Structure formats: structure tokens, C-alpha cells
Amino acid sequence: MDFAGALSPDNLRFILEGFYVTLKVAFISIVLSFVLGCLVGTIRYAKIPILAPVLGVIVEILRNLPLLLIIFFTRFALPDIGIKLDVVTSAIVALTLFEGAIISEIVRSGLNSVNKGQIEASRSSGLGYTQTLWHIVMPQGLRRMVPPLVSQFIALLKDTSLAVVISLPELMNHSKIVIAQSYDFVIPVLMVVALLYFSVNYALSLIARRLEAKFV
């Protein structure tokens, strides 16, 4: 093991540059997948004719496909139909679609968990369906969704490592390049990678535990 060589200033800077890309891709994907998941989950909960069943089929397809396949599709198949994306955008689109499908189920389950009696009471008091959804169902449902949502965001951060197959310049990709310099760099570099992933994911898991204790 060569810690000094593996973690030289240049190598460490290169690894951290990859970690920055990982965090950037994860953050953008989290925001987009959350918005997409909330929209799709709400539409399916409301059972909007035609739209809800169609989205339901799409969600089931995405949830049951390997994320790796979706990443390959956005990077290599979309250009064949005229949609050309750079490697970062391809990773973000793939993660957003896959995680958005899963989050939509979390949202739909959260909304369905709200007591039907409260919904009926709000409707009988004069509130319309949209008002009931916005003022009664959404606030309660969102509170119950927080822990599983944070857990899914943690999974999303880890899933960014799969984009190494399309040469996304993220943490694992840069680490692989550093390791290729010398076999003695394997353990030191992987230890740093593990520490970086652990630090972020553990912080998120602590947030999830606190939110779960507060809202559930």
C-alpha cells in the first residue's frame, strides 16, 4: 500500500473533482425526480382518466428495469432517434426517470395512507376535491413520506456510481483512473472513496432517523 503516492495532492484533487460531479449529478437528479415523482404520484392518486393508467404502466416498466439499462439507453439509444445528450445529462435523465418512478409510488402510498374519514369530513364541510387534496391530504401525506424519501435519496446518491459505465467523470470513474497508476494505490484510494460516500450517506441517514422520529 502506498498512501503517500495514492493520496498525493494531485490525485486527491482529482478524486475530489469526481466527488463534486457525483454530488452535482445526485443533487440535480434528486430535485428533478422529486418533482416528477410528486406530479406522477398525485395524478395516479387522483385517478385522472387516461393519464393515470398510462403513467401507471410507465412507472411499472421503469421500476422493473435495471437502472444500468436505463443509463445505457439514455446515453447510447437516444442518439439513434435524434436526441443527443452529453454524458452528465444522460446520467441525470436516467437517474431522474428511474428514481422518479420509485418516488411516485412513495408519494401515492403516502397520500393513500391519509384517513378516508378526514377526506369525507372535509368534503362534507364544503371543500372541493382539489381543496381537500391540497389542504388535508397533501400536508399529512408529505409528513409520512419524509423518511422513505430521504432513504431513496441516499440510494440515488449511491446509484450515481453506476454511471461509471458511460464514463461519467464522477467519483468512481476518477478513482479508477488513479488506481490504474499503481496496484499499490487500490486500498488507499478505495478507503478514501468509502469515506466520502459514508460521510454523505451517514449524514442523510441521521436526518432520516430524526425525521422519522418526528413525523411517524
Automatic annotation (TrEMBL):
Its main location: membrane. It is a multi-pass membrane protein. It comes from the Bacteria. The chain crosses the membrane at residues 20-43, 50-73, 85-107, 185-204. GO terms for molecular function: transmembrane transporter activity. Gene3D superfamilies: MetI-like. GO terms for cellular component: ATP-binding cassette (ABC) transporter complex. CDD domains: TM_PBP2. One of its GO terms (biological process) is amino acid transport. Keywords: Amino-acid transport, Cell membrane, Membrane, Transmembrane, Transmembrane helix, Transport. Pfam families: BPD_transp_1 (PF00528). It is found in: Cell membrane. Residues 19-208 form the ABC transmembrane type-1 domain. Belongs to the binding-protein-dependent transport system permease family. This is Glutamine ABC transporter permease. It comes from Paenibacillus abyssi.
